[in-house]
Each structure stands twice: as C-alpha cells, then as structure tokens.
Amino acid sequence: MDRVPGITRRQVGRVENAERRRGSNSDDGQAVYRAPISPDGKTVACASPDEKAVFKWQIAIVPFDGGTVTRFIDLPDLPATANPQVIAWAPDGRSIAHVDVSGVGQNIFAQPIDGGPRKQLTNFKTNSIAAFNFTRDGKQLILGRGPLSQDVVLIKDFR
Length: 159
Fold this sequence. Notes:
The chain is mainly beta and about 160 residues long.
C-alpha cells in the first residue's frame, strides 16, 4: 500500500463513493476528513488540521493513485465550532469550495488551487450551511442550511 504522509489509502478510499467516506485519525496521527475526488478523477482534496497551528485548517491535494501531498491550501482562521470538512471541487477542477464561518452568516467561497484570491459564491446573513455541492452543469449550488441549535438538556432518572 502506498503511503501518503498524514493520509492513508484507507481514508481516501479507492472506491466509487470515496467522496462520501469519512476519515479518522491515520496511523501516523494526522486527521483527514471528507475526501472529494476532482472532476478529472486524478486528485483528491482532504480537509486536514494544520499541524503547526491550533484551530487552523488546510486542504491537502493528493494524487488519487497515491503519493505525497502535492499542495496545501490554507483556509482562513476558523472558530473551534467550524465545519471545515464541508468541501467540494468546482466543476472545472480549478478551485475547491468550502464553507467560511468568519462572518455573520456562513457562506461558501471558492479557493483556486493555483493560490489565487478566493471568491465568495454566496452572501447569506444568517444560518449555518450543513452541506453543499455543485449541480452537474456547474451553474448552481445545492445546499442545506438553517439555524444551528445548541441547547443542552440533562434528563435524569429516565425509565
């Protein structure tokens, strides 16, 4: 089995639905989450915590057939409650879209893999984005969003 520093083939998954699989801590300790496959099928993008910074995330671009990470893309600073593993390849394969939670509402941004400036794709003022993806023709986004409820209830002596 080919080894990718921080990423194992078990996590990336060489199966048809690899983009739906969730990773866990790899054998060498680096966590990897959701791994969508690029439109051309040659690379995989993985959200991964930056080992050098607390609450800092990056997207690792890895060849589908294995090997070393070819590029790391830094994501903006995110609060601890952020969900950086919600990522998707743009249909043209030149950028990766992700959810940004740094503003008032959560929004989707496209980050070019060549390092160019990111582009805001949505402009919501409220609510959270749970999941999203592009339509097959690449002209629209499909997303699930709504209010985030974080109430905690303790139930004791339940029978």
